[in-house]
């Protein structure tokens, strides 16, 4: 079935990318985009830059690059800004983060040094392990929100931006108590005026973005825009929002292996995950409050994929443990270990071990790029509110309160690509169809059968 093509305005003009939090992830993202723009590196890990999308039937051989299929902003038109608790420009932040090599950073030094963070909104009640040095002061949280709104508008004007996207790359905040001020736009704005303690800085940035009609993504597990008040405001203002918590190392593995166990009906008795990392993110997560936020985000994925309520015998009683240890010598080069205890035929026990020597920010940077480009696409396409089709990129995908989030990486991937197909009026693909088998039974095929010579050539190529 073909759908009506939503008339999506082209991605003309400059796209401003605003990043609250300009540490390891943000600086690796910006440096990467600048290196790619100069032809000095490849955007490995980015679907928007590298992946193709199959359209129609297999024999049609239509598989353009995603970036040639949907109208995305070109990298040349991105301009970066943001806020941080420290005044370091993006070159200094990237040098301190030690994710990229000095020779890589030297090649884009001028571009990175030009990205200087604006003073941040900070509240030590939500972030205990960092001593902020570059912050705003205000009479109330509403006053702080208005300052962020003024920053956004000044950035828009100075850089002649046609459109803007904001992506939270700041530290993981302690979760606030769920409070009445989160429930409706009116209560939230009153909460800002009263400086309600249940409003953390990330919600103030999200509010400011929505007020300025700027799409908002959240790469950390803090609630940020994931409260009814801000979701309603985003829907009313026609602003796409999505979070939470970039799906990078261990959870990427988990949401890949768990669907396999379930697909094959292999039982799970235990999953023990532990990590060491030594960057500033690790330092923040060393605080039990911030760790609790992260743990919540990491724990939910298995239950949601395995559905213990449907399969109590296979998944009703497994033991799940997640640990993160701050270990400075490793910097951003995180190491994760997973021990997975499973059972097979006749309940015979087996084990899977995964040892992932990853680089946190190298995995997160392409996600930042894709999210910025897809959130901007969503806004031009008129998609407002929570963008569930972007669940693929998140550990705790935001979704409607009455629904369960989808964690299975493969379903998320299919959903993302099918959403792109729908946006462009192409047929949704579910990779099945009975006409194939009808053809084998001798019925008239509804697709062209390959000619004998073509079949021989294909068989030879397959050998
Ligand atoms: N790298 C990954 O694989 C990954 C995966 C999932 C989530 N995340 C999350 O992404 C975020 C960034 O990670 P990182 O490695 O870049 O951490 P980082 O510590 O290097 O950078 C975070 C930056 O945010 C700043 N910050 C904190 N509160 C702020 C505020 N209120 N306003 C403005 N700036 C603020 C800090 O000063 C710091 O520079 C973290 O929350 C992390 O948990 C990272």
Descriptive report:
40% of the residues lie in helices and 15% in strands. It has 463 residues and is of the alpha/beta class. It has two domains: 14-246 and 361-423, Rossmann fold (3-Layer(aba) Sandwich), CATH 3.40.50; 259-357, Dihydrodipicolinate Reductase, domain 2 (2-Layer Sandwich), CATH 3.30.360.10. A seven-stranded parallel β-sheet has the order 3-2-1-4-5-6-11, with helices on both faces. It has a four-stranded mixed β-sheet with strand order 8-7-9-10. Strand 9 (335-343) and strand 10 form a beta hairpin. The longest helix is centred in the last third of the chain and has 21 residues, at 360-380. The chain starts with 13 loop residues before the first strand and ends with a helix. The mean pLDDT is 91. The site of nicotinamide-adenine-dinucleotide has 36 residues, from helix 1, strand 2, helix 12 and helix 15.
Topology of this protein?
Elements: E1 14-20, H1 24-37, H2 47-50, H3 66-69, E2 78-84, H4 90-97, H5 102-106, H6 109-113, E3 118-119, H7 141-158, E4 161-168, H8 185-193, H9 201-211, E5 215-218, H10 228-237, E6 240-242, H11 250-263, E7 267-277, H12 280-285, H13 288-306, H14 312-315, E8 319-326, E9 335-343, E10 349-357, H15 360-380, E11 385-386, H16 409-423, H17 435-440, H18 452-462
Parallel strand pairs: 1-2, 1-4, 2-3, 4-5, 5-6, 6-11, 7-8
Antiparallel strand pairs: 7-9, 9-10
Helix pairs in contact: 1-4, 1-15, 7-8, 7-9, 8-10, 9-10, 11-13
Nicotinamide-adenine-dinucleotide (NAD) binds near residues 120, 127, 219, 220 and 245.
């Amino acid at each position: 079935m073909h759908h009506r093509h939503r008339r999506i305005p082209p991605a003309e003009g400059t796209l401003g990318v605003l990043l609250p939090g300009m540490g390891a992830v943000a600086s690796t993202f910006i440096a990467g985009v600048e290196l790619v723009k100069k032809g000095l590196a490849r955007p490995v890990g980015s679907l928007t830059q590298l992946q193709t999308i199959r359209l129609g039937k297999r024999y049609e051989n239509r598989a353009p690059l995603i970036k040639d299929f949907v109208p995305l902003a070109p990298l040349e038109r991105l301009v970066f800004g943001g806020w941080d608790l420290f005044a370091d420009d993006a070159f200094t932040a990237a040098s301190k983060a030690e994710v990229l090599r000095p020779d890589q950073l030297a090649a884009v030094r001028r571009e990175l040094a030009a990205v200087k963070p604006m003073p941040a909104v900070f509240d030590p009640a939500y972030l205990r392990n960092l001593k902020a040095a570059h912050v705003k002061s205000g009479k109330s949280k509403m006053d702080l929100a208005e300052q962020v709104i003024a920053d956004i508008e000044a950035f828009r004007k100075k850089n002649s931006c046609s459109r803007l996207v904001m992506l939270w790359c700041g530290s993981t905040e302690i979760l606030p108590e769920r409070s009445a001020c989160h429930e409706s736009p009116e209560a939230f704005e009153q909460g800002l005026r009263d400086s309600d303690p249940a409003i953390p800085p990330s919600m103030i940035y999200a509010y400011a973005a929505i007020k300025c009609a700027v799409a908002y993504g959240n790469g950390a597990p803090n609630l940020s825009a994931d409260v009814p008040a801000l979701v309603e405001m985003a829907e009313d203002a026609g602003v796409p929002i999505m979070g939470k918590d970039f799906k990078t190392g261990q959870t990427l593995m988990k949401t890949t292996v768990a669907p396999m166990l379930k697909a094959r009906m292999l039982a799970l008795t235990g999953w023990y995950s532990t990590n060491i990392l030594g960057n500033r993110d690790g330092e923040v997560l060393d605080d039990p409050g911030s760790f609790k936020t992260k743990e919540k985000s990491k724990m939910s994925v298995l239950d949601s994929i395995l559905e213990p309520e449907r399969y109590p015998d296979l998944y009703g009683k497994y033991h799940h443990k997640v640990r993160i240890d701050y270990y400075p010598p490793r910097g951003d080069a995180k190491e994760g270990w997973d021990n997975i205890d499973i059972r097979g035929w006749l309940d015979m026990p087996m084990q899977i071990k995964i040892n992932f020597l990853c680089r946190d920010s190298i995995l997160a940077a392409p996600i930042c790029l894709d999210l910025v480009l897809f959130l901007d696409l969503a806004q031009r396409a008129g998609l407002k509110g929570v963008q569930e089709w972007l669940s693929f990129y998140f550990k705790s995908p935001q979704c409607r309160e009455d629904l369960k989030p989808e964690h299975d990486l493969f379903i998320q991937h299919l959903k993302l690509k099918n959403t792109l197909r729908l946006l462009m009026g192409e047929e949704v693909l579910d990779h099945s169809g009975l006409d194939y088998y009808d053809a084998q039974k001798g019925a008239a095929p509804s697709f062209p059968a390959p000619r004998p010579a073509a079949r021989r050539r294909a068989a030879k190529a397959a050998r």
